Model the fold of this input.
Amino acid sequence: MTIPKTRKAIEAAFDIYRSRLDTIPDELFTETPPGGGWSYAEVYSHILQADLGSTIAMERCINGTCNPTTEGPNLLGRLVLFFHRFPPVKIKVPEKTAAKMPATKISKEDAKNLLIKCRKRVAEVAPLAVNALPYNRYKHPRLGNLNAGNWLKFILIHTTHHLKQLDRINKKFAAK
Done:
């Protein structure tokens, strides 16, 4: 998938996140679902913080403010980028990453504002990825060294992955 197509797919995913905000009852947004797990608010917090962090990593690759390396993604990273999806197992956020960007129970208004901010950042940074040097890579905590194009793909994969998590939360509340 080309960088412009990936960007459009990310924007489409952001549209889904935005439209779902309107369908989630206010009183359930921050409530922990039956049986545990993240609330809607925590999913929005996590995904949007991760997307913003990924645009920063992308920008480092674009500007060459990271170490050039021939070492690319690790095996998991290559598989995720090739198949455009995560493995079908639950994976916890690495502790270091969770400490830097904890998933918190944000308000719906905060989620809307973060979506706007993410959309703006992706729109600013994605077009610049076309001219980024492929060996300018910044390390992802699980996937290895990613270049600007890889980071953009990661944003799409990660963002669409968490849409499934929102579906699971919906089912938990529906079964209540």
In short: The radius of gyration is 16 Å. The beta strands are 138-140, 144-146.
